[in-house]
DNA sequence: TCCTCTAAGAGAGGG
DNA sequence: TCTTAGAGGA
């Protein structure tokens, strides 16, 4: 081991690393060297005589786990690191549950249902209960069930909890508890656990079997939790149970980066940690090594608007850097163009590579205009997120075969493939089998096996028997052959591979390639020696299935270093950093999302999301927004995001954000490119435009055919000084048309007017610094 | 049972 | 705009 590993650390980092005993909370600000601290701490533990077998380190993503493993290995330089338990909550618990699942009545080779499987089960049940799935939306019901499990609420408790029942009554969905109950029983019958079960059943196991709890308490003497601000109550309780004896619990997190409450995380876990244990030591990592002062100041200022935070002061020694550039464009397409042009410009002028750029947006749907414009500019890019490899239909279908081979109880998987490829077993037949299975309390598969007894005949019976025989033959084959050989046989016997091969359409070709890739991955799996040790010593099909279910595209990381511009949601960007970041679509109702502005909690989470976006940037940050954009096929007008107002003026360059200007060229090239920045055909701007060199240029292009509700500004439109506005005045707005000022608020240099636009969508709040108003008549 | 056409609906997403 | 579910015809 490197002897001087502590020398690379600053004082608080060193303190965090060398505090070994007792509860420890590390508040790690953005870019403060969190991973370094975590990995060094593990190395330090081992250097101080702690056995690797006694260390448990839990993360949220496989990627984080992998990175941690690699870095620990680098420091330790030996094979000892292999003995550590480093993994995601889900993968570690899945592993532990494999050996103890029979205690809970599950087979040890239980199937893991991903959320698609789970939703499909919910949907089946909703239909069985003859409920309207427009009202009991499977997605919504599943989220409710998921939330219950994440809060350790059993089906019985759910149905008897007054508050929960009240809530369901109020939304007139009183039967969710019933669905939850049936769902839990169905999964159990299918020998399946969903993602939430991996936590929930782990808790049930530890709570119900003291000897199991004692075993793991003894084993995991040192526990470390990454991203603690994202833990949910189930994770919290499990950690508490496991650590109760030794209390060597180290949690790391940043409350300012808690952005996952929508999937059950409670920021309270980190805010309350100090109260959970006696003598909690708190170490704050406050020096940021990532960003310029300008970027950090903007981030700090915005996040300070949130209440109830853990006090911290994130600072940096880095130079001040450039101001953050705020860019306003007319349309979403212009936004894409400006970003693409700015990337070209920055590459040329400041010698950046493609991989130095990242475009961050709130919703995946926003990616389109950037894709198009990047493609047009011949800038290579890659979009992260969206459908993962294992979620593609052809892959899920193929995997369903493997799942059925492994676990005949897996009804979801059987239904997926029973008629794929088409073999004449249709909807009616499947429904019948379902009904028989429920009536006779048999599994779906058992009914299929005894199809003749249940009165199926003719072609249907033949088809079912053929299917059953085929699956059984795979099962027999698995006894003598490895997972890869069986998978190849599946591809042959079912004709799937041949069929896709003969499909010469683009999609067909892609599907064929995907199946080949899947087969390759299975081959690779069977041929590479395991590194997980212990329980994962064998390379069975079951283990392969578990691995891929708990794996996502993001973990693949194969293109990690490829030289392309990266596009992703802000959520997906957490933990990453880029020299140049574009945070786009900064408009009200988009960011903050219109779905999250109804409570302070929701809005604060959006603000934290904005904070995460800003703190991804190392040297340059561009913030963009558009006057109008197509959403759901309709042209939508949005006000600039409220977050833009919360930023400190002195670090912002607003010269590209003037009233109604049409930015379509590169931004921030150092001034030389002003000439081509604007569409020269445009009419001169009114006196209300800002006094930058840009002000002599344009205002929005009047649309040729104004869509209904779209206002074409009067020919003499000139914005009036916000300071002269008063309530009661009749005014004109460039887009919303004529209206009346109802009230005014805010400081004189940053006034917000509430205006009623009869033809422009009713009452609107207008920030007068951005959207200009012309006084039509002085009201009374 | 299979196939095609229409209509409704749409957030972020790890494991 | 794009995707997916369900209706209705072959």
UniProtKB/TrEMBL annotation:
Record key words, sorted: ATP-binding, DNA-binding, Helicase, Hydrolase, Isomerase, Nucleotide-binding
Annotated GO MF terms: 3'-5' DNA helicase activity; ATP binding; ATP hydrolysis activity; DNA binding
CDD domains documented for this protein: DEXQc_UvrD
Pfam families: UvrD-helicase, UvrD_C
Xref: InterPro entries: DExx_box_DNA_helicase_dom_sf, DNA_helicase_UvrD-like_C, DNA_helicase_UvrD/REP, P-loop_NTPase, UvrD-like_ATP-bd
Limits of the UvrD-like helicase C-terminal domain: 293-575
A single Gene Ontology CC term: DNA helicase complex
Reaction it catalyzes: Couples ATP hydrolysis with the unwinding of duplex DNA by translocating in the 3'-5' direction; ATP + H2O = ADP + phosphate + H(+)
Gene3D superfamilies reported in the protein's UniProt record: 1.10.10.160, P-loop containing nucleotide triphosphate hydrolases, PCRA, domain 4
Biological process, per Gene Ontology: recombinational repair
Domain of life: Bacteria
Bias (Low complexity): 684-700
Binding of ATP, residues: 28-35
Enzyme Commission designation: 5.6.2.4
Isomerase found in the keyword field: yes
Domain UvrD-like helicase ATP-binding: 7-292
Region spans: Disordered: 668-721
Keyword Transcription regulation annotated: no
Record family assignment: Belongs to the helicase family. UvrD subfamily.
Name of the molecule in the record: DNA 3'-5' helicase
Organism in which the protein naturally occurs: Chitinophaga niabensis
């Amino acid at each position: 081991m490197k002897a001087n590993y502590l020398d690379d650390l600053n004082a608080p980092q060193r303190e965090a690393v060398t505090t070994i005993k007792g509860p420890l909370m590390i508040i790690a600000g953005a870019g403060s060297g969190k991973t370094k601290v975590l990995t060094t701490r593990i190395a330090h533990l081992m250097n101080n005589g702690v056995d690797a077998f006694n260390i448990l380190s839990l993360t949220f993503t496989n990627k984080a786990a992998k990175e941690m493993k690699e870095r620990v290995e680098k420091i330790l330089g030996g094979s000892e690191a292999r003995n550590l338990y480093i993994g995601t909550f889900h993968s570690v618990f899945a592993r532990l549950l494999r050996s103890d699942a029979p205690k809970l009545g599950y087979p040890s080779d239980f199937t893991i249902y991903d959320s698609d499987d789970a939703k499909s089960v919910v949907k089946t049940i909703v239909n069985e209960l003859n409920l309207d799935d427009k009202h009991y939306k499977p997605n919504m019901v599943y989220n409710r069930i998921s939330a219950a499990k994440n809060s350790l609420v059993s089906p019985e408790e759910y149905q008897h909890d007054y508050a929960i029942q009240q809530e369901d009554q109020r939304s007139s969905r009183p039967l969710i508890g019933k669905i939850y109950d049936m769902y839990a029983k169905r999964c159990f019958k299918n020998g399946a656990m969903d993602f939430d079960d991996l936590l929930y059943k782990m808790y049930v196991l530890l709570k119900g079997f003291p000897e199991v709890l004692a075993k793991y308490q003894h084993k995991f003497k040192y526990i470390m939790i990454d991203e603690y601000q994202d833990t949910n109550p189930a994770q919290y309780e499990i950690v508490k149970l496991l650590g109760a004896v030794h209390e060597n619990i180290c949690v790391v997190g940043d409350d300012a980066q808690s952005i996952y409450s929508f999937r059950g995380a409670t920021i309270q876990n980190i805010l309350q940690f100090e109260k959970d244990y006696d003598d909690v030591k708190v170490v704050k990592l406050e020096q940021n090594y990532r960003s310029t002062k300008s970027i950090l100041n903007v981030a700090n200022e915005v996040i300070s608007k949130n209440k109830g935070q853990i006090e911290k002061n994130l600072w940096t020694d880095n130079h001040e850097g450039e101001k953050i550039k705020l860019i306003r464009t007319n349309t979403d397409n212009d936004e894409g163009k400006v970003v693409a042009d700015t990337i070209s410009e920055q590459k040329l002028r400041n010698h950046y590579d493609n991989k130095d750029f990242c475009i961050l947006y709130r919703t995946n749907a926003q990616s389109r205009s950037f894709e198009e414009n990047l493609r047009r500019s011949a800038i290579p890019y890659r979009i992260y997120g969206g459908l993962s490899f294992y979620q593609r239909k052809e892959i899920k279908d193929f995997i369903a075969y493997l799942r059925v081979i492994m676990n005949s109880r897996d009804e979801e998987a059987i239904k997926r493939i029973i008629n794929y490829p088409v073999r004449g077993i249709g909807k009616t037949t499947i429904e019948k089998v379902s009904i028989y299975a429920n009536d006779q309390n048999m599994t779906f598969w058992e009914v299929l096996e005894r199809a003749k007894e249940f009165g199926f005949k003719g072609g249907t019976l033949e088809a079912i028997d053929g299917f059953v025989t085929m699956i059984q033959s795979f099962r027999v084959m698995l006894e003598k052959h490895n997972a890869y050989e069986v998978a190849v046989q599946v591809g042959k016997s079912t004709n799937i591979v041949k069929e896709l091969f003969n499909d010469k359409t683009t999609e067909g070709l892609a599907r064929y390639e995907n199946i080949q890739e899947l087969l390759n991955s299975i081959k690779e799996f069977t041929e590479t020696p395991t590194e997980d040790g212990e329980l994962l010593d064998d390379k069975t099909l079951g283990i392969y299935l578990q691995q891929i279910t708990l794996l996502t595209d993001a973990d693949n990381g194969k293109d990690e270093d490829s030289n392309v511009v990266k596009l992703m949601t802000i959520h997906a960007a957490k933990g990453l950093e880029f020299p140049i970041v574009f945070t786009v679509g900064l408009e009200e109702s988009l960011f903050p999302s219109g779905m999250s502005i109804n409570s302070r909690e929701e809005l604060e989470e959006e603000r934290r999301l904005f904070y995460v976006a800003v703190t991804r940037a190392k040297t340059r940050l561009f913030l963009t927004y558009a006057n109008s954009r197509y959403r759901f096929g309709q042209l939508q007008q949005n006000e600039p995001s409220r977050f833009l107002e919360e930023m400190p003026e002195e670090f912002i360059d607003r010269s590209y954000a003037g009233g109604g200007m049409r930015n379509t060229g590169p931004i921030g090239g150092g001034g030389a490119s002003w000439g081509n920045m604007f569409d020269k055909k445009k009419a001169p701007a009114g006196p209300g435009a800002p006094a930058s060199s840009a002000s002599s240029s344009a205002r929005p292009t009047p649309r040729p055919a104004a869509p209904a509700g779209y206002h074409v500004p009067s020919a003499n439109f000139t914005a009036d000084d916000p300071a002269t506005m008063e309530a009661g005045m009749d005014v004109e707005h460039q887009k919303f048309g004529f209206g009346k000022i109802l009230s005014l608020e805010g400081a004189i240099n940053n006034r917000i007017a509430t205006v009623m636009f009869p033809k422009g969508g009713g009452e609107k709040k207008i920030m007068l610094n951005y959207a200009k108003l012309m006084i039509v008549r002085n009201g009374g």
